[in-house]
User: Fold Ig-like domain-containing protein from Motilibacter deserti.
Amino acid sequence: MLHRGHIDLFDVVYDVDARNLDLKVKDDTKLYAEAAVLREPEDVVIPVDPAITSATVPSDPEYGFLGRAGDRVYVLQQNGRNADGTRQPWPGWGAESVPGGLLQDDIVVLDVDVEGPGKVFAYSSGAGTPFVYIDGNFSWPDDLETNVGSHVHTNWAFSEEGTYTLKVRAKATTVDGLPLVSPTSTYTFVVGAPTQPPPPPPTRLTVSGADRAYFPGDEVRLQAQQSPETELTEYVWESRRPGAADFTSVSIGAPATYAFPAHLSDDGTQYRALLLDRHRETVAVSPPVTVRVREPGAGGGPAADVCAAQPDVDVVGEGHADLALRIRNDGELVAQVKDGRTGSPVWHGPAQVAFRLGTAAAGTGTERAGLEFLGRRGEIFWAVGQTQQPGVPWLGWSTDDATMTDSVSDEIGWSLDRSRVTGPGDVFVFQTDAFGRVLPLLGTGAGWPASATLARGSHSHGTWAFTAPGRYTLPFTYTATSYGRPTSATATVTFLVGPCAFPSPSPAPTGPTPVPASPGATAIPAPVVPAPVVSTPPAPIQVPDLGPRPVVLSRARLVGTPVVGARLTCRHRFSVGTIRSFQWLRDGEPVRGRSASRRLVADDIGHRIRCRAVVAAPAGTASSLSPTRTVKPLARPARRP
Assistant:
């Protein structure tokens, strides 16, 4: 409990390991330590003593936002003490420790939500009109914009006695365009005697997803469920093989869902989930559940429930992945699967991954114009959607890896070798516009293109549609120029579609879907006898380490006098790389000038000038934006009398 002294309540920090923002309480009260201490917000209470904070709303209309004149309010003063010198808690906020040049415009936004018996206000007062940061008369959440390096203190006013909780997140965007959002932190003010709410009921944890038998290649998907629900989202998953004495951890710091491809060796394995609090202490442990895996056709399950994949192939049944292009150190193009299911990307060779489309991916044909290629009304097709869906792999394509620098051509060719496609049906890859119109990319159907163009530095998703269940292999070729020389890469992608029993590929159709012999009849294709296929997945492609990414060591700054006729120079400091470009901005808009210095002209008078330096290295780029300088006219010397 911090009952007096200096406190940075919303102290924004940058967590280097997590590469994200976080919120702390900077306790500078010296009540419990001789130096400032960073504390977790949930461990701190700010008491508001009515005996030293009680006041009445003045009749001055400038303060009418606090209520009617004469209304009782409880105020923590913006200078930390009453007029008689009595010290109070002095809470403020700031982002003093966030590195300069990390965030766009060096801005952090604090997203604040509040619960309590009354209204909360944060405002600064002085000789002029008070500046209101948080207005309790408006709906929450409120956004507080603060600058990197800033430190703000305000008056805090509360309209009623009781306990107030403020839930706060810090949000920003890096100079590279990456959005940052901190975990939500909870802050507590107690006005008057602290209320003692009844202790919350203990959290019970259960795991679902083990109430059915799986078959090899199926995705086992276990889901942890809290009762009652809490704000905690971090888990440890543990397993215990048959005959083992203890559980062992299989995933630490994981989400509420744990998924993995089923193998016969998993049969009889028990799994349980442990819920962690912010201090990584265990809050609840679920009862164990047992996963059952059966041979195809055994234990009441038909063999048709399994789409077979080659040994040692990772079957992806859900989550984000991309067919991604990268450039090796020798300048050659490579194609890999960028697996984003675990948060940090994992890179695979295309032959080491298969994408499984099960029941959740099934749809039925309609008579909607433009979608006739998916089948007649009521006919089943399977699809990976343009947007992410539960139980369906979300496969996209990307050319935005850090290795894809300006040395690579802006346009990259993407083609499907239809003569080598295998599978029992047609394949279509397309996107749709804002009104549902189909934009074809690649396909095996009559009239569909076999090639498309990708833009370097892009990341997209579309629909992958299959008209029949079975095993498909799609051979793709990518072409580009790198450092002025042509380069290409190939990738063969496997899809396991629907309830099928196709352990080896079958030929793809070579023409359009047959027309029924008579009205109402259904065309029955001739049976396909699969040929045995023996394939050995190649080792994953190793992309050499391109070295460290450039880091801003000190924020860019302007050197020189900001007057007309003078020259401003953009000074900067990065860890590695060579300067790629300079950009000069006037009131936030680009102006002429691409060198490290710029001569100021009459049009600059009264405007804010700043510069941005961009550095490039093989592993990526970084940029730094300077503070602004306001340009003044050149002072003329006074005439002698």
Summary: The first strand starts at residue 5 and ends at 15.
